[in-house]
Design a protein that fits this description.
Length: about 425
């Protein structure tokens, strides 16, 4: 037990002095393994096994597909599409921002990509339309959380690798929570827009422009629907559907939107290499960390501790929600999934939570952490775009993040919100 305390103390020390999290985990693990040099022989094998997975092929391919679509004129067409479909409720750019994120999240699978791609276009447009700068940035950041909940989701692929749960079932388990977050935020934005007179004056209906915008947005919407259907029905594996998504993105970019160039494709490939490599490094080193925790019996000890509390199921769900929200403030999504899943999944299963419900709770909660200081990646991306203080962006996002917390509590207390769709498609829970 003393060695585990030393391991955790080293990890905290390396993080405090500014070592990147992946290398902080690796350095702590290597220091621990020096106590038994024979274990060092296992180090390369464990790192390789952590990253060597057919499922991991899907992650960079989904990233590449989203980047290519964004480079090929997707973003502005989604905005135009959403503007037209929100005409009946007199929606302003606040509502457009929310719906944009719901659609873009189903393409990129990443909240950070959502903030980066949409924020640079829609935040200045919202300011010009009368929205306060802080509100425009806050809505953009808060709505981007749907990017990693609505399928396809990169964090769900990482969770699937650790938990063994089906990717198709996880995609379906995240669909309802992701849509609920979007609907709650949309209702709140409508209320705030009406209260503060942020809605634009009604413009004259132009049928020709309406159909141009609708038809222009359809190719973007079809991609996430295609992925969900083929993966959930078993027609394709996650990796195969990710490859098909890249091919689809190229076809749309080159031949439908006709804005994609080979230079854009090369830039997308480079971005994907950098993004996926950083995740792979974290996965490799975190695999060693979880292996050490298992050797030391930490999951069993944690499970015994929670069992000894004799808490009701709803109470353990709320305790876990609070834990996720706190951890999400300090640790990025992928490392948090890799660290928490081996320890907490057995505990939650002993209380009757399925791997699907646990995964949806974990990812929905960690999505909020992307928008909370000090680590919040979406806050940092928005800061680079708008040159605003991170705390100001967070203050603008906080009221809308309350919608995420409401949905997190709902899916924690009512299991059908997460397992209903997988059961409908024939998955076993």
């Amino acid at each position: 037990m003393i060695t585990m305390v030393i391991l955790l103390a080293l990890l905290i020390f390396f993080v405090i002095i500014g070592v990147p999290l992946a290398f902080a985990i690796g350095a702590a693990c290597i220091t621990y393994l020096l106590s038994n040099p024979l274990l060092l022989q296992m180090l390369p094998q464990r790192v390789w096994n952590g990253c060597f997975s057919d499922l991991m092929i899907a992650m960079p391919l989904f990233m590449l597909a989203g980047d290519i679509m964004s480079s090929g004129g997707l973003t502005k067409r989604i905005i135009s599409f959403c503007t037209q479909i929100l005409r009946p409720i007199h929606g302003g750019l606040g509502e457009v921002n929310i719906v944009d994120s719901m659609i873009f999240g189903g393409i990129s699978g990443s909240s950070v990509a959502d903030t980066s791609a949409l924020g640079s276009i829609i935040i200045p447009a919202m300011e010009a339309d009368g929205y306060p700068r802080k509100v425009a940035a806050g809505i953009t950041v808060a709505s981007s959380t749907m990017g990693m909940i609505i399928p396809p989701s990169t964090p769900m692929i990482v969770y699937s690798m650790i938990s063994g749960a089906s990717v198709g079932a996880l995609f379906l388990a995240g669909a309802v929570p992701g849509i609920l977050v979007g609907v709650c935020q949309l209702v709140f934005v409508v209320f705030m827009s009406v209260k503060n007179h942020w809605h634009p004056e009604r413009s004259k209906f132009d049928a020709k422009q309406f159909w141009r915008d609708i038809l222009g947005g359809i190719p973007a919407i079809l991609m996430p629907l295609f992925i969900i259907v083929v993966v959930s029905t078993g027609i394709c594996t996650a990796s195969e559907s990710a490859g098909a998504a890249v091919f689809y993105a190229l076809i749309v970019g080159f031949f439908i939107y006709r804005e994609l160039t080979w230079k854009d494709v090369w830039e997308s490939v480079k971005n994907t290499f950098v993004s996926s490599a950083s995740v792979m490094i974290i996965i490799g080193f975190t695999t060693i960390f979880t292996w050490i925790l298992t050797m030391e019996g930490v999951p069993d000890q944690v499970g015994a501790f929670f069992t000894s509390l004799n808490m009701p199921r709803w109470a353990i769900a709320l305790v876990f929600d609070i834990m996720i929200l706190l951890i999400g403030c300090f640790i990025d999504v992928s490392p948090a999934i890799l660290l928490l899943t081996p320890i907490m999944l057995p505990v939650m299963e002993s209380y009757g939570f399925s791997a699907l419900q646990f995964g949806a709770m974990l990812i929905t909660g960690l999505a909020i952490g992307l928008c909370t200081p000090p680590v919040g990646m979406c806050l940092n991306v928005c800061n680079r775009i708008m040159k605003m203080p991170i705390l100001e962006i967070f203050k603008g996002a906080a009221p809308y993040l309350c919608c995420n917390i409401v949905v997190l509590i709902a899916i924690s207390l009512w299991e059908p919100l997460t397992v209903g769709l997988p059961l409908l498609f024939g998955y076993s829970i």
